[in-house]
Structures are given as structure tokens and as C-alpha cells.
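Protocol step 4 of 6: structure prediction from sequence.
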Amino acid sequence: MSAGINHYKTDLREIFFTLFEQFGLSQVVGQAPFDAWGPEEAKAVLHETYRFSKDVLGPLNASGDREGCRVENGTVIAPSGFKDAWKKLYEQGFKTVGVSQEHGGQGAPMMLQMAVEEMLCGANAAFNMYPGLAYGAAELIAECGTPEQKHHYVERMLNGTWGGTMCLTEPQAGSDVGAAKTTARRNADGTYNIRGTKIFISAGDHDLAENIIHLVLARVEGAAVGTKGLSLFIVPKLRINKDGSAGPSNDVALGSIEHKMGINGSSTCVLNFGENDACVGELVGGVEHVGMSQMFKMMNGARIAVGIQGVALASAAYFNALDYAKERKQGGSFTKWKDPASPRVPIIEHPDVRRMLLEIKSHVEGIRALIFKLAMHTDKAKQLAGKDDDKAAYHRGQVEVLTPLVKAYGSDQAFRLCAQAIQIYGGAGFCQDYPVEQYCRDSKIFSIYEGTNHIQAMDLVGRKLGQAGGANFQQFMEDVGGFIEANRDHKTFGTEVKVLAAAQEGLMASAMAVLGWSQDPAKTQLIPLSANRFLQMMSEVAVGWLLLDAAVLAEKSMAGLSDNHPDKAFYEGKKWSALWYARNVLPNVEQAARLMALEDASPMDISDAAFSAV
């Protein structure tokens, strides 16, 4: 199947605003450890990434979805064009932008890396799964592996010679990772024989790289039950010769590939390890029983990456829907809707279409800002480490607090916003002639993998609220409060800033309620019942704050610009994104706080039989 046309489109001006004007990338680059970078170099990389995304990845998106993956002789064959795209991706350095120079990368700030990833994902989410998993697995080995493991694996996985995966899920366990049954038996030479089955393994097998390095959670024989007894192993698909080349099979067999609702160009595999008792793995870092803590280093990065996937597809859906709305003529003007002779107008003139477009625009811009803010905290924590440990700790704490918001809110909204884009098209959007139906299908998995969004919500209320003695959450609230106090009487946005203040108060009241429930055995069931709602509340406060912050900056920048200046309309758009979100979304936080205060436990009070008489 040949590649089709590119549908991917984004707004580099919006990305530049968020990076440089809102989060100060210009002040991050030029300083260690990012001293090799400057603003112009960063912009050049983004322009090139956009070109590559449109010219190489975008045309493969629909064709890869329709062709899907297939199995030949026990190996997954990726869709046509993917292998060539893989080669070009690494040759041109797009996957090594954020890789440390120690491992052959370019050492860019995370903010720049996230912007690059957004475009690669937006153009072809299924393709970008393959290098994304390899990157995450390599990062884990770089952080947790022995010196020999780092030398042996990391650079080859980061330069595209080898792929990589994370293997957690098992048929009987699902999200209950502690119920894993995969075993590891010690060998005399220090290696381990691995035996078990893993399911839903993204990029678990393919023909894009010479070898695939699996990171496998398994229980060493005699280890404790539950997550505490799990260890993490490096398990190559093919054994590796002393010269680094691929050797014979390592007894890792492809069981099957899943036939899915979306991301059909990405292979999702069942993998069987050690069917012939000949699968050999080596312990990550040489330490047993710390597999979960090691794996979470990759999981946290993966959760941030899911948020990027979400905003990438929602943004792509938005720009396609916007173009369609400008071109498609249907119906007369709403000012003359009773006049059958009224000429047809582009549907962007219809109020409900404009409402839907502004809803998607505001959410995309706000979620992107949330992601870049997290990345900014990561970059500053890295720069301040060993220089100002208190400030570095503050930035690391904000990364911890924001990660579940980025993953869960970003992915939940992506599916909803892509569905909204279909609605703008009407019946045409439901057809494969336009890309939005694929964006919607592809985005559904985001709220499920890398820990379902309820797991993210429980992480937030169960761990992050109380982390560092509650300091991380409190500092987040203080940051929001500082913006409110500085802008409460703003001439343009003062009313909306007061709405943000009311939402913040509702969020704080709900946080105190959660703390109270945790100390009352009779009410602890309210925590999982309310966790998702609380995460959405906190996400909406964060996004509302960042949109208003962007609008305040945009208004200052707009002052003095002529009406025909190209930035005039752009800055006006920032204003309306913030106003719409503050007026239509932020009030929901107050209502949600009232609902939490009701302490409704009806899902627990209803009997199983009462759900249905069937």
C-alpha cells in the first residue's frame, strides 16, 4: 500500500509563544547543561521537525492505519513505508534531540524535546510508538543499569539500531502488576532464565530494527508475592554476539498481535518468554526485588509522553476541522436563518461551529501549556541541581504533582476533543475520507495504557497530595494564588481571575475533604469514588490558570501592534481561549467541589444484584 497525502498541520507560532514567551526557553538555553543551544537553534529544529512530520510521517498515517501490521514467519511486518521512515528519523536526529551527549545525543532541554515529540506524534501516532518505547527503555537502562549495561545497550537503542519495550502486563493480572507470574531462575553465570507471557506489549515485535530489547518484570524464584518481589530484566529478542551484532533467537516468541480500535500501524503483541526454557535475561543494575521502582522511572516518562500524544492528536484534529469549517458551505447566515433564499455560508459562520472550534482551541492550548510547564520544571531542576537544592526540589516536586494531570487530563480530553472535531464535519467526519475519525480512534487508548486514568487519579490523591509532607501540592496552590493576587483587578481579565480564585478555593476544600476521608475508616471508600473528579478539578484549575497567564502576556505583547500586524490576530486568539475556558469550564470546579462535599457513596451502597435483574 502506497503512502497517501499528508493531513498533519500545526501552528508553530503557538508553539513558539508557549515555549519562548510563556515559559522562557530563551533563558534556559545557553546555560549548562544546555549551553550548546540557543533560541535560533531551537527554532530551526522545530521548523525541520515540522517539515519531516508533514513530508515523511503524515503521508503514512492513514495508509498505515488501513494496512496495519501483519505476521510473517513469526515476525511482525510493520506497514509499508515505516521502515524507511524509521531510518530517516534517526539519520536526521529527531529522536536524539533530548538525549544526553554522553549517549550520542544533542542534549536539548526537555521543553524543546516535548515540542518535537508533539509534532512527530501528531503526524503519525502509531509510527511514533516504536521509537518512543525504545527511547523510554534506553533511558531506564541509562539511569538504573550497570556501567556494562549502559555501554552495551543504551546508545544502540537511542540511535535506532535496536528497538525496545516495557513488558508489565499479563493475562491474569492486567493493571494488578503485583499478580505477575513470569518467573526468573538464577543461572550459575549470573544470568536468569525467564519464563512467562506478557500481553499488550506496544512495539513488542517489528522489522524496523536489528533487535528488540525487552524490559521484563519477573519474580525470582522464592521472592515475595506482590510488587515487592518483582525484579526487572533486560531480555533481548535475539541474543547478542560479543561484537554487538544480533545472534540466535533468545526464545522470545510472538504469540499474536492484537486487532485494535486504533493505532493499527503500531504492533501490540502477546509475547511468550522461555517456551523452550532457553530465554536468558540479565538483571537491571544487578539488583533483585527493585523492579517496580526501576520500572516507574520509565512509566513516569511514558505517562508524560501520553499527554503529549493526547494534545498532538487533538491539535491535529482541530486544524483539520478549522480548515473544513472555513471551506464547507452549508446553510444561510444565522442572521437570516428564516430566509430560504439566503446564500450559503462557510459553516465557520454558524455559532455552534464557532463554539466547538473555540472549545477545542482553548483546551489544546491549555493542555500544551501544562505539558511545557512540566518540562520547564524538569529543565530548571536539572540546571539547579547542586547549585540551589531547595529550588531544584521545588521544581522536581511540581513535576511529580503535574504528571498525573498531564497524562489523565491530556488523554481524556484528547478523545473528547477529537470526537468534537468529527461533530464539526458532520457526517463527513465519520468517514475515512477525512482524518478526524482516525484521530478519534487512535486517541482512545491514551486514557487506558501506561496506567488507566483512574490509576493516575489514585496516584494524585493517594500519593501526590501528601508527598513531601503536602509541600508539593501546597506550592502548586501558592503559584496559582500568586497569579490571582497579581491579576485580581486586571482591566481585561479581572472577572475571570476571580472565577479562577473561586475554583482554587473549591479545589482546596476538596483536598481537605480527601485528607479527612483518609483518616476515617468509614469514609475511605469516598477516595476512589472521587479521585477522578478531583484530578479533573485540579487539571481545570491548572489549565485555566495557564490560559489566563498566557492571555495576560499576550495582551501586553499586543499593545502597540498595528491592526494588520501578523501577531495581532494571534494574540487576540490567546485572549479568547482564556476567556472561553474561564467562563465555561472553570465554574465546573466549584460545582464539582459541592458534589464532593455531598459524600455520595451510592455506587458502593447499591447491591450487585440491583445493577440488573438479568
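Step 5 (inspection) to follow. The longest helix spans residues 291-327.
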